[in-house]
Design brief:
By secondary structure, the chain is an alpha/beta fold. It has seven helices and ten strands. Helix 3 packs across helix 4, helix 4 runs parallel beside helix 6 and helix 5 crosses helix 6. It comes from Pyrrhoderma noxium. GO terms for molecular function: biliverdin reductase [NAD(P)H] activity; riboflavin reductase (NADPH) activity.
């Protein structure tokens, strides 16, 4: 498949691009600062690089031509500015995907995004409160991401892959479920997230769902 990647210059994004290439996909990296990409990616003939902003609809529509899906490693930071910029970027992308005929979106989320299948989980409830009050703009943006994708992208085949604390561990193993199901753990490797994306592109098991990922 031909896949457009958001957030490709970050730690998760680089792993995601490499996983997609290993799985023999072709990749468009849409990035504000593509100069951050390493040489092994920029020189790969299966990679196209497009420099652009999330809110540049004309450029986004152009970059989406021929794509089968959009996958994202975008997430807010502790120093996130106000105004939910990532959620607003997704709004532009959803409109652009519709115009370009791209049906599939897999996005990064966190436990701050609620799901009707979640049950009470003291650990993540406490962590969520810490983010809500300690990194307010990041919390507002990621919650808005969940709302934007599920509401504005209601006609798309979307998946929001919610993650716990991310680590640089080497295991690619992950488990999927919901908060409070008795199976979840508190971490996930970044390569585990990338592995889930590649698997979900193939299997489409979590369309219009918000699975919670963690290491087994």
């Amino acid at each position: 498949m031909h896949i457009l990647v958001l957030g490709g210059t970050g730690a998760i994004g680089l792993l995601l691009i490499r996983e997609l290439l290993t799985a023999e996909h072709t990749v468009v990296v849409y990035a504000r600062s593509p100069e951050k990409l390493p040489e092994d990616i920029t020189s790969n003939p299966s990679v196209t690089i497009v420099k652009g902003e999330l809110n540049d609809e004309e450029k986004v529509v152009s970059a989406l031509q021929g794509a089968h899906a959009v996958v994202s490693a975008l997430g807010p930071s502790a120093s996130q500015p106000p105004g939910t910029p990532i959620a607003k970027g997704y709004s532009v992308f959803i409109t652009s995907m519709r115009k370009a005929g791209v049906p599939r979106l897999i996005a990064l989320g966190t436990a701050s995004i609620p799901d009707e299948h979640d049950k009470k989980d003291l650990f993540f409830w406490t962590a969520k409160q810490g983010v809500k009050y300690g990194a307010r703009h990041a919390y507002q943006d990621i919650v808005a991401v969940g709302e934007t994708i599920s509401k504005e992208g209601s006609d798309l085949a979307w998946t929001i892959a919610r993650v716990p604390f991310l680590t640089n561990g080497e295991t690619r193993e992950y488990q999927t479920g919901y908060l409070g199901d008795g199976k979840r753990t508190t971490t996930l490797t970044r390569v585990g997230y990338a592995a889930f994306i590649v698997d979900e592109l193939k299997n489409n098991e979590w369309v219009k769902k918000r699975p919670f990922l963690s290491v087994p």
